[in-house]
Structure formats: C-alpha cells, structure tokens
Write the structure tokens for this entry.
Amino acid sequence: MLEIKSEVFEINPNSVVEVDFVGQGRHKVVTADHFYKFPDKVLKLALDLPYTNRFEIVGNFPGVRASFTTDTSQMIETISRLWGKSLQPFFTPQPIVFSGITTKNYPLNIGQRQPHIDQDITAMVWLNPAQSCVGGTGIFRHRLTDLERLPHTPNQEIRDLADRLELSDEFLKSQEGYENFQNSMIFNPLFACKENRYINDGNEFWELLKIIEMKPNRLIIFDGRCFHSQYIKPEHYKEAFRVNQILYLSQKSTN
C-alpha cells in the first residue's frame, strides 16, 4: 500500500453543495465545490504516479489511468451523505483512481464518440487548476428511444420499448441478450459522431440535456446509468491533460 500523508485527502467541511435534477426522469446530479481541503496536494500526488493505457486497466476510457489502494472510507461516507443514500465501493478494495485525457494525436473509437454508461453511481473530482479547466461532463437523451438511462436489468420501460420495436422476448431473458439489445438499439455505431471528437453538443441521435461544468476541485456525483460523456472540444487539452479522480460506487437498488 502506498504511504500517503493523512492530510492529502482531507475533505473540506465547508464545500459548496448544489443539487440539480436532469431530464424527464429528474435524474439527480450533485456538485460539491472546494471538495478537498488541499487540492494542490491531491493534484501533485496524481501527477507523480505512473500511468498506463493498458486495456485491462482503462477499458474503453479514452486516456490513461493510475491507481493505488488506500483507505477511502471517509471519502465514501462523505459522498454518501452528499448523495443522500448509503453507497458502497463497487470494487473491493476501492482504489484511488486518477484519469488523464489529452486530445493531442488521440484517435477515438466508435464507443468513445458517443455517450456511455457506468456500473452504478459515479463520483468524480476534477483536479486541474482554473487555467486548464474547460468543458465538463454531458448528460444525454437517446432521441430514437427517448431513453435517458439504462437500468441494470430490463424494467417496464425497457419492455415496453421492446414491444414497440416488435423485438423477440429473447433479447430480455438473459444478460447477454440485454447487452445485445443495448448495443444494437442504443449504442449502435451509426449513432456515434462521424468525426474524431466527443459527442459534446449532441447529434441527430443524442440530445444534450445538461453540461456539468468542469471547475477546479469540484466533486460531481450522478447516476452512472444515465447516458453521459466527456464534454471536450478538439482544441481542448492538447497541451495539458484533463486530470480527475474517479470512484465507482454502488447503491442497493438494482435498477
């Protein structure tokens, strides 16, 4: 375990918290500004770590990541309080994960050129100083189906959609079938940006519902099952990386 001074991840008790509700589904988004007491120390630690772009570490994330294991219980307790519901680590143990993105000489694949979903609740702290904070995270609606979120397992909304599309029940009887349904009806490659860029303001298939603005030392918490994507324009982050800390958390509800 990496030795970290206790004050590095000390949380500011006086962060400025706002709660918003996005889309027809009124999906909760929480922001907490000035989240860390010593954000410069967190950023220094992040920049001193070794990063990798190995697929088993980054998956389909369009950048590099570094991680280490330390006690994140206070962090998760604070995020739970801000979210208003008890959250647990999605991974055991829950590592500290830092992510870096650059647009310089970086080709995006089809999956990275449209919105995606995460495992459950996503919490992220932006770490860039003010002079290199731009863009943010976009929340989207899928225009063709009117969906704003995908549940872990098919709910009545998904079943009604399958009926309207006259799809076989086999699509929704197994996890593999449900994933095939998602990949063909929601994340179809034809729905992605044609150009080598992020979806940003949307297209004929994806409607941008909200931009969560990137600010230094801002924590954001949202339902990762909602369609979302980095809001990064091609001219952004060519010289400096966009750096953030990310935690994947879980709440008891399965949908």
Summary: The longest strand covers residues 242-250.
